[in-house]
From TrEMBL:
The lineage of its organism: Bacteria, Bacillati, Bacillota, Bacilli, Bacillales. Its EC number is 2.1.1.45. (6R)-5,10-methylene-5,6,7,8-tetrahydrofolate binds at residues 219, 313. The keyword Methyltransferase applies. Gene3D superfamilies: Thymidylate synthase/dCMP hydroxymethylase domain. SUPFAM superfamilies: Thymidylate synthase/dCMP hydroxymethylase. This is Thymidylate synthase. Transmembrane segments: none annotated. Catalyzes the reductive methylation of 2'-deoxyuridine-5'-monophosphate (dUMP) to 2'-deoxythymidine-5'-monophosphate (dTMP) while utilizing 5,10-methylenetetrahydrofolate (mTHF) as the methyl donor and reductant in the reaction, yielding dihydrofolate (DHF) as a by-product. This enzymatic reaction provides an intracellular de novo source of dTMP, an essential precursor for DNA biosynthesis. It catalyses: dUMP + (6R)-5,10-methylene-5,6,7,8-tetrahydrofolate = 7,8-dihydrofolate + dTMP. The active site is at residue 196. Keywords: Cytoplasm, Methyltransferase, Nucleotide biosynthesis, Transferase. One of its GO terms (molecular function) is thymidylate synthase activity.
Amino acid sequence: MDQYLQLCQTILANGAVKDDRTGTGTKSIFGYQMRFDLTKGFPLLTTKRTAMRLIVSELLWFLKGDTNVRTLIAENNHIWDEWAFEKWVKSENYNGPDMTDFGLRAAQDEAFQQIVDEQMTIFRERILSDDEFAKSYGDLGPVYGRQWRSWPSADGSSIDQLKNVINSLKNNPDSRRHIVTAWNPSEVDQMALPPCHTFFQFYVADNKLSCQLYQRSADVFLGVPFNIASYALLTHLIARECNLEVGEFVHTLGDAHIYSNHMDQVNEQLTREPRDLPTLTISSEKESIFELVTSDISIEGYNPHPRIKAPIAV
């Protein structure tokens, strides 16, 4: 994962200081590309522990076209909770403590962090136990899963982009149209978070499947390690579905940034030596990738450095 560490070093050395939507501030560069040969191991970051179980359950959530955090919370996956929680605390039905700018305030105030944690626990419990509450506040709008599997067309029907790409890969592998996009301009304003990983394309050569992702916005410390592993896994899954081997994952970044409150964590990570990459195992018991559950996918030989905590910018 030297490519990832080089990205961090490049931003620290050459990044422009910029304001951002969250009010946190970043160091940022524009236009950067990394390439990962998937035949040489699974690109899961080793300079800090990265939770593969969360990556797997999120990707399967996308593949099933789901957009409600209830599914993820039931699997103890909380990476989307803040955006659903924000929807609740900004609503007229919320009557708890003031949660204005809760992400920034919690990062600076341990006592307030405890209050946020208490309200988040209440929120998660209601999402799991109350169908109407989950419907109102658990749904994130037409985010990735909806666009991948049920893109709304002009005639009122929907387009399953992922199934179409799989069929295209099987029947016309040399096509240059193996594309899935999550960026739907007509629905961006309805999404809890507009897609950061916006567009991906597959390519077949020598019976190997490669994938290139364009990511418009890249949180380099927290998000990018997840994105690398998620799209590497997606490439493996689509290759399996199409009876192909894996080739490369190519990661093209637009605005690649390190948040100002992640600088110490990045510098700590840069002191660590990368370790050998793990290998990916996918159960052969399920015929289709759309039947897989989280426990069907695992990694072996993962020996990372310890986790490094950092606040998420909401």
